[in-house]
Each structure stands twice: as structure tokens, then as C-alpha cells.
UniProtKB/TrEMBL annotation, chain B:
It comes from Marmota monax. Residues 89-158 form the Phosphatidylinositol N-acetylglucosaminyltransferase subunit H conserved domain. The chain crosses the membrane at residues 36-56, 62-82. This is Phosphatidylinositol N-acetylglucosaminyltransferase subunit H. GO terms for molecular function: glycosyltransferase activity. It holds the Pfam family PIG-H. Pathway: Glycolipid biosynthesis; glycosylphosphatidylinositol-anchor biosynthesis.
Length: 630, 188
């Protein structure tokens, strides 16, 4: 950069322009000011008295002297420096480059000032030369940043030529230097994301978000960072890429391979979904069974996820990209855990042990139920039951248990083979295996469900009968038309029979209520176990693991905001701050990027649940269909 | 320019306020809270271990003792990392914003930065806290929809809880900067 060649070739651009090189003032040919293209003299408005904030990238702090290029935001009186243009340069080419970048990125670019690194330029005459550049690139205010030799403090000046009392004397503003890491700001996303208006200048956003403007400017100026000071282009720039770019071969290979792989998998998945949607599956009773089994629901959910991940459309927004990545990582983890479970099951004949243990366990449960019923048929907890009703209900349920045990014993030779084939499904994912477990529990406790339904229906009928006869007892009646209780005059026969029936029902109530209570408790126990399994499945489905991993390894990618640190300060020198990215807390990461769940959450509140239990209405904890019906 | 003064918090503990004036438009206030006292730490540890030893003599299971040791260790680490705040800092920069930092005893720092465009005012409020009436400094944030309404109140120095004399010092400095900010800002 210390070379000076007089009469420098203008590179065939005509006599009107000249190559600008640094050197003593008499060696520099008269720079002919070319007419500025429209928009170069932007930023003439400013806020008087406001401190000028200069955002300077840390990578340019050791760059050679040159011009500062970036964006000026007049509403906040801040200058965002994006790169440094080194000598030698031709002013026309610099302006062309800026116009190109402005068109591509829709961000107002301009030459903001000069940068002088005194440690590498020992000549003192550079100062005058740099001031001369202010006339070629007119910008209000004109920044002059200078790094002294042997001192870590900088000198910054912002000169205003137009607006001042004496037109010949330029006025100066106070400058505050804010250093920022360009690469991190480029890659990070602010949460909550600010809406960017797509105007020609892009300046309308400046009035809304303060620091979001800086992030937006850097993110949209990627076009500027394509060429470097080591490239052979007409303009030599220094920015974050000059420090060296790290890239991974695997990532690049994956990016190249992802196109055809996505296409292939998308075709495969569309075939599968077409096969599952064909008319054959709509024959009764298949849709009925499908709606009841949670395994089918989980498989469909996973199919939807995979279709979204491998779709050939590119993600529209960063949020969509994160969602796709989260889904992919969730599916991969699921399959990995499922394969681990599979290998554990198939090692050392665990399936055989499980199958051998299953029938005795079912027998044991049935025996316990029989003991329970014998206890109920006697004098449970010292209560006196109505003997006849007790015997009827007890024998009815005992016969059911006997039937159930016979079926289990019929199936016992096939259980091991069934379990082995079902265990293979764990390779589809841990969630599928857990859903199958939940369905098996539902199947095995089917008799408890039946008992619950019988008990509940009986109890429900009794409660309705009691309430209606109670109204008759008081001389009232339920008016269906008006949906309210009205008085009614009954004649003597009706009153007599009604009262008799009422008395009978009241005295039979404790027996029915006790059976209902016992079987409801058993059913709630089974529902709780199934609920825990569903909770675990939901957790694996919805946890955004990719976002959590990103927050752990690259915390600057997910930004909640910024934080400032005041660097060493000397009185009389401009204030220097370091702007760092404040990462998003983990709870907000999970909250923002959580995947949509199956939707199998209980829809009742505790109050409505208690009300249903009291009146004997059947409870379906998951969806409207509920589990297998009788 | 830096100076340090001693104040007291609402419970009577000693607080040290450090003021740094970097420039006419950038000021920083650091409040150092009283450290973790050895006396209370010893008391808690002794209580837990005596209780564990009592249970051990009852049930003769050595797992109780190991559980007590691990609970004490984990509890202390969790307390130092998540609960005990050593220092609270308020940095106010004209035309940029207000930053509040809390440093925990384990070295963790949690920072919140509020942009100047969102700040309506900095005031001292009175509040009823248990059986006391205390003063606290808070930042009022503007409502994005209606600029004259207040959308949020952010209290400052929540764990240090200094008394009114300390708050007045901080309040005066903040008001000087905010006045300058209001005079030079564009929005109404």
C-alpha cells in the first residue's frame, strides 16, 4: 500500500476517472469528482445533539487503512460499518459495487468515512489525503476513525459540513464506538423476530426496532461479503470472511446429497400415504379399530413428520427450518432408542421370558379380582349389603372373569410368536413400541373396562331413577319442553308406586354404589398407567432437541437480545463498548420451538371429571372415541 | 471517574455502591450484596446431618448418610448458582439503553438490556412488602401500541433492596441522562 505510481493507468475507464492511491499530496493526481449517482448523498437528515453510534466489526480492527462502507441510520444517528475498502481503488468501481449490493439486498449502502491504521502507515501525510476523499464520496456525517500507534485507544471524529453556523467550518459530533462480532451477528436470529418491511430503501424499519436494525443490516448484506481482499476483483474488501472461513466437508457433502435423497424419500412416503389412504381401509370395522388404537395414531403422526421433513420445497422462514430440523432429530433419536430397545429385547431370550411370565401374571390378576368379588359379596368393610343383588352382581362378574381366563389360556401357545413379531416394530421407533405397550395394556385389562362400564351404567340408571322419583316424591316433574322442573299433580296410584320404587332404589343404592366405586378405582388405575406412557410418548414427540443442542453448542444463533460491556476508557477519548449476543434461556427455547403434539390430552377439568364420576357418566380420557368399547 | 459509598439495605445489611462515570452520557452503578455468611451455612449443614444421623440410628441404613451428604452438596451448589446474587449492576447509556446485570456467587451472570426507545421513565415506587413499606427503583416501559400508556414495570436491584438514600443517588443520575435523551430524541 506504500507504493505510489504516478500517472497511474486508469484501467481503460476513460480520462474522467483516476485510480486513487495514497501518498504525499503532490504525487496524487487531481481527483476529478464524478457526479454522484442518485442516492449517494443520502443521510442529510440527522438528529442534532444525539451521540453518534458507530458499529464497527471486530474483524476490521486490524485491517489496513481504507474507506468505511456500510449503512447510515439517521433516525437513531447510528452508522453500521460492514466492510473496509482498501487502497488502491477506483471511486467509480466502488460506487458501482455499492449500487449492486444495494439492489441485491435492498439495504441502503454508502461510503461512511475513512479508516486509518497508523501502525501500518507511518506517513503523517495520510491524514490530509484522507480528508480529500471526503469530497469524492460526499456523506453526511463523514466518519474518521483512526487507530494510533502504540495505544489501544482510538480517535473518532464525525464531521458535518452542511448544517453548521459557519458554512466553512465543519462541526463535529461526539462519537461512541460499539464493536460487534460480524459473523455471530450475521448468523443469529432475534427472538421475537421483528417483521421487516420490504421497502426499496429498507429505512422504514429503523424507526421501529433499535438494535434489530443492526442485525437486519448485517444479515441482508451477504452479497457484500462474497468478495474479499485476496480476490482479484476491482475492489478489495475486508470483512469477517477475511479472517478465514471454516467449513466442514461432511456438511457440504450432505448439502449436495440432500437433493436427490429428499426426492427419493418423498416419492416413497407419498406411496405409503397413498396406500394407507386407499378405499380398502375404509371397510368397517377397520376405521373403527384404527381410531381406537393409539399405535395407528402415532404411526400417522410420524408419517406426517417425515413427509414434512423430506418435502422437496425449501423452508420459507428460519422458524420452518428449525421445525424441520427438530422433527428430523426427533425421528432419528426415536429410531435409535427403538433399536436399542430391540437389541435389549432380543438378547438372552427376553421375549421368551416375557411370554412365559405373561400368562401367570394374567392369571394372578384374575385371581385377585375373584378374591375382591368374594370380599364384596360378603360384608365388605363391615357394611351390610343387600344379599340378593350382591349375589347377582357378584356371580355375573365372576362368570366374566372365568370367560376371560379361558380366552387367555386359549391364546397362550401363540403369545411368544406374537410378542416376537410385535417386538420387531420397535425398529420404527421407541414411541411406536410404547404405543403398542399401551394398547397391549388396554387389551389385557379389557375385563376391568367391561366391569367398569357395567357398574357405571347400572349406577347411572339408578341415579337417574332416583332423581326422577325424588321429584315425584316432592310433587314435581321435569319439563322436557321447557328444560326445567315444574310442579305436577299426580294421582294416588302414581304416587304410591313411585314412592315404593323410590324406597327400593334407595335401599339398593349402597350395593350398586360400592361396586361402582371399586371398579371405577381399578379403571382409573389402568388409565393412569396408560396416561404416563402417553406422556412419555408425547415428550419424545414434541421436545425440540435440535434447538436445545444449538442453544448448547452455538448459543449466539438463538438470541434473546444483546448485552454491552464497557471497554477500557480514558477521559477525553470516545467511549468504546463491546456488543455481545445474549442467548435465549432454555425454557424459552423449548416454548418457542416445541413441536405440535398428537392432541391426545384430556379435555376435562377436575370439576367436570368429579361431576361425571358422581353421576356415573362414562369417562373417555383421550379422544372422543376412547378405548375399545364393549 | 469512580467512587464508592456504603449504604444499607432494608434488612440492615451493608451494601457497597460503586459509581462509575465513563462519560457524560454513560454511567454505571454497582451494588455489592452481603456475602454468604459462614454461620448460617454451618447451621444448616449441622441440622441436616444431625437429622440424617438420627434417622440412621433409627433404620440402620447407610444410604441415609450418603443421601444427606449429596443433598447438602447439591443444595449448596444449586443455591450458589441459582439463588445467591453477589452483585447487581445498572448501566445506563444515553440513546442506547439501560442494562441490568446480576452476578451470582458461582460466577454466572444474567443480563437484561432494554432499549432507550422502550423506556418511558425511571421512578421510585413505594410498596408494601410483608410488614414493611419499602421503596424500590423501577423502569417504566412504553406500550408499543399506545405511546402514552405504560405496558410494564421493571424493578431494579431486586435482591439487593437498598434503602431510599441509595436509591435517590441512582435516581438523580438516571434522570440527568434521561432528560438529555428526551431533549434529543425524535419521537414524542
Amino acid at each position: 500500500m506504500g507504493l505510489v505510481s504516478r500517472g497511474a493507468a486508469a484501467a481503460g475507464l476513460g480520462a474522467a476517472s483516476a485510480v486513487v492511491r495514497p501518498g504525499p499530496p503532490d504525487a496524487v493526481p487531481n481527483p476529478v469528482p464524478s457526479p454522484p449517482p442518485g442516492g449517494a448523498a443520502r443521510g442529510s437528515s440527522r438528529v442534532p445533539g444525539m451521540v453518534l453510534k458507530a458499529f464497527f466489526p471486530t474483524c476490521c480492527a486490524s485491517a489496513d487503512s481504507g474507506l468505511l462502507v456500510g449503512r447510515w441510520v439517521p433516525e437513531q444517528s447510528s452508522a453500521v460499518v460492514l466492510a473496509v475498502v482498501h487502497f488502491p481503488f477506483i471511486p467509480i468501481q466502488v460506487k458501482e459495487l455499492l449500487a449492486q449490493v444495494q439492489q441485491a439486498s435492498r439495504v441502503g449502502m454508502a461510503v461512511l468515512g475513512t479508516w486509518c491504521h497508523r501502525q501500518q502507515e507511518p506517513e503523517e501525510s495520510l491524514g490530509h489525503f484522507l480528508e480529500g476523499l471526503g469530497t469524492i464520496f460526499s456523506h453526511e456525517p463523514w466518519l474518521q476513525l483512526c487507530r494510533e500507534r502504540g495505544s489501544k485507544f482510538w480517535s473518532c471524529k464525525a464531521i458535518h459540513r452542511q448544517v453548521s453556523a459557519a458554512p466553512d467550518v465543519p462541526s463535529e459530533d461526539q462519537v461512541m464506538l460499539i464493536f460487534y462480532d460480524q459473523r455471530k451477528v450475521l448468523l443469529s436470529q432475534l427472538h421475537p423476530p421483528t417483521v421487516v418491511s420490504d421497502h426499496q430503501d429498507g429505512d422504514t424499519m429503523a424507526s421501529t426496532g433499535g438494535l434489530a436494525v443492526v442485525f437486519d443490516t448485517v444479515a441482508r448484506s451477504e452479497v457484500l461479503f462474497c468478495s474479499d481482499q485476496y480476490d482479484e476483483g476491482p475492489v478489495r474488501l475486508s470483512h469477517w470472511q477475511s479472517e478465514g472461513v471454516e467449513a466442514s466437508v461432511l456438511v457440504e457433502l450432505a448439502k449436495r446429497a440432500s437433493g436427490p435423497v429428499c426426492l427419493l424419500l418423498a416419492c416413497l412416503l407419498s406411496l405409503i400415504s397413498a396406500a394407507s389412504g386407499c378405499r380398502l381401509w375404509k371397510l368397517w370395522p377397520l376405521p373403527f379399530i384404527r381410531s381406537k388404537l393409539s399405535t395407528c395414531e402415532q404411526l400417522r403422526h410420524r408419517l406426517d413428520h417425515l413427509t414434512l421433513v423430506f418435502s422437496t420445497q425449501k423452508a420459507q422462514s428460519p422458524a420452518q427450518l428449525m421445525r424441520k430440523a427438530n422433527m428430523l432429530v426427533s425421528v432419528l433419536l426415536d429410531v435409535a432408542l427403538g433399536l436399542m430397545l430391540l437389541s435389549w429385547l432380543h438378547s438372552s431370550n427376553r421375549i421368551g421370558q416375557l411370554a412365559d411370565a405373561l400368562v401367570p401374571v394374567a392369571d394372578h390378576v384374575a385371581e385377585e379380582l375373584q378374591h375382591l368379588l368374594q370380599w364384596l359379596m360378603g360384608a365388605p368393610a363391615g357394611l351390610k349389603m343387600n344379599r340378593a343383588l350382591d349375589q347377582v352382581l357378584g356371580r355375573f362378574f365372576l362368570y366374566h372373569i372365568h370367560l376371560w381366563i379361558s380366552y387367555i389360556h386359549l391364546m397362550s401357545p401363540f403369545i411368544e410368536r406374537i410378542l416376537w413379531h410385535v417386538g420387531l416394530s420397535a425398529c420404527l421407533g421407541l414411541t411406536v413400541a410404547l404405543s403398542i405397550l399401551s394398547d397391549i395394556i388396554a387389551l389385557l385389562t379389557f375385563h376391568i373396562y367391561c366391569f367398569y362400564v357395567y357398574g357405571a351404567r347400572l349406577y347411572c340408571l339408578k341415579i337417574y331413577g332416583l332423581s326422577s322419583l325424588w321429584r315425584l316424591f316432592r310433587g314435581k316433574k321435569w319439563n322436557v319442553l321447557r328444560q326445567r322442573v315444574d310442579s305436577c299433580s299426580y294421582n294416588l296410584d302414581q304416587l304410591f308406586i313411585g314412592t315404593l320404587l323410590f324406597t327400593i332404589l334407595v335401599f339398593l343404592l349402597p350395593t350398586t354404589a360400592l361396586y361402582y366405586l371399586v371398579f371405577t378405582l381399578l379403571r382409573l388405575l389402568v388409565v393412569t398407567v396408560q396416561g404416563l406412557i402417553h406422556l412419555l410418548v408425547d415428550l419424545v414427540n414434541t421436545l425440540p432437541l435440535y434447538s436445545l443442542g444449538l442453544r448448547l453448542c452455538r448459543p449466539y444463533r438463538l438470541a434473546a437480545g444483546v448485552k454491552f460491556r464497557v471497554l477500557e476508557h480514558e477521559v477525553g477519548r470516545p467511549l468504546r463498548l463491546l456488543m455481545q449476543i445474549n442467548p435465549l434461556p432454555y425454557s424459552r427455547v423449548v416454548h418457542t420451538y416445541r413441536l405440535p403434539s398428537c392432541g391426545c390430552h384430556p379435555k376435562h377439568s377436575w370439576g367436570s371429571l368429579c361431576r361425571k364420576l358422581f353421576f356415573g357418566e362414562l369417562i373417555y380420557p383421550w379422544r372422543q372415541g376412547g378405548d375399545k368399547q364393549d | 471517574m469512580e467512587d464508592e459509598r456504603t449504604f444499607s439495605d432494608i434488612c440492615g445489611g451493608r451494601l457497597a455502591l460503586q459509581r462509575r462515570y465513563y462519560s457524560p452520557f454513560c454511567r454505571e452503578f454497582c451494588l455489592n450484596c452481603p456475602r454468604l455468611s459462614l454461620r448460617s451455612l454451618t447451621a444448616v449443614t449441622c441440622t441436616v446431618w444431625l437429622a440424617a444421623y438420627g434417622l440412621f440410628t433409627l433404620w440402620e441404613n447407610s444410604m441415609i448418610l450418603s443421601a444427606a451428604i449429596s443433598i447438602t452438596l447439591l443444595g449448596l451448589l444449586g443455591y450458589l448458582h441459582f439463588v445467591k446474587i453477589d452483585q447487581e449492576t445498572l448501566l445506563i447509556i444515553d440513546s442506547l439503553g439501560i442494562q441490568m446485570t446480576s452476578s451470582y456467587a458461582s460466577g454466572k451472570e444474567s443480563t437484561t438490556f432494554i432499549e432507550m426507545g422502550k423506556v418511558k421513565d425511571v421512578v421510585i415506587n413505594e410498596a408494601i412488602y410483608m410488614q414493611k413499606v419499602i421503596y424500590y427503583l423501577c423502569i417504566l416501559l412504553k406500550d408499543p401500541v399506545e405511546p402514552h400508556m405504560i405496558s410494564q414495570v421493571v424493578p431494579v436491584f431486586q435482591s439487593a433492596k437498598p434503602r431510599l438514600d441509595c436509591l435517590i443517588e441512582v435516581y438523580r443520575s438516571c434522570q440527568e441522562i434521561l432528560a438529555h435523551q428526551k431533549a434529543t430524541s425524535t419521537s414524542p
